[in-house]
Specification:
Helix content is about 45%, strand content about 15%. The chain is globular and about 45 Å long. It has helices at about 5-10, 35-55, 75-80, 85-100, 120-125, 145-155, 170-185; strands at about 25, 30, 60-65, 70-75, 110-115, 130-135, 160-165. The longest helix is centred in the first third of the chain and has 20 residues, at about 35-55. The strands form 2 sheets. The chain has a 5-stranded mixed β-sheet. The chain has a two-stranded antiparallel ribbon with strand order 1-2. The termini are far apart. Bound molecules: zinc ion.
């Protein structure tokens, strides 16, 4: 194997600290300020509350396009009897149904109240999301912290920054209240 092949096969690993451009950041022409991200998570939290009102686990997501349009969706696993109907998947399908095409438009930034699972991270990679911001960590299925480095290293032709901790207390509070009420029943 010559040197060129070695270079091609070498994993393109970036240390975690360089995966994020920081706030506010510029991505695919989509500039979002701290205040816009705060508001976007507000829309995701509202979608999570609506999911809770349907007796779903209260997780919500919101997506902002570079032109300012915002779409939202909540978890619908129970309602659809579909274990894959997570908020991120519901939202991706909703946006693509509304706009046509087979992927998200360039520069689409997603906020989700809870750390995405591995399925959703893979789906968002396929959908070409520009960036993901999540609220609270999810120690069981949450995959951003554990698998983002894997997505970085793998030879995917689309990568995006993932950042947690946006309005985390509010997102965690919704989950806490939901499970507390469920146990009390
Ligand atoms: Zn998921």
């Amino acid at each position: 194997m010559n040197r060129r092949h070695c270079a091609l096969l070498a994993p393109r690993i970036q240390p975690p600290s360089t995966r994020f451009a920081g706030y506010p950041y510029l991505l695919s022409g989509s500039f979002m300020t701290e205040s816009q991200l705060h508001d976007l998570m507000g829309r995701a939290l509202a979608a999570a509350r609506r999911a809770g009102a349907r007796d779903e686990v209260p997780i919500g997501a919101a997506l902002r396009l570079p032109d300012g349009r915002i779409f939202t969706a909540g978890n619908r696993v129970m309602g659809r009897r579909d274990p894959t109907a997570h908020a991120e998947i519901e939202l991706t399908r909703r946006v693509i149904r509304a706009l046509g095409g087979i992927r998200l438009p360039a520069g689409a930034v997603l906020a989700v109240t809870v750390e995405p699972c591995l399925m959703c991270l893979a789906a968002l990679t396929h959908a070409r999301v520009a960036a993901v911001h999540y609220g609270c960590p999810e120690p069981k299925w949450g995959s951003a912290s554990r698998f983002a480095p894997l997505l970085e290293q793998a030879a995917f032709n689309h990568r995006f920054p993932i950042r947690g901790g946006l309005r985390a207390e509010e997102a965690a509070g919704l989950l806490k209240n939901y499970f507390k009420a469920k146990r009390a029943r």
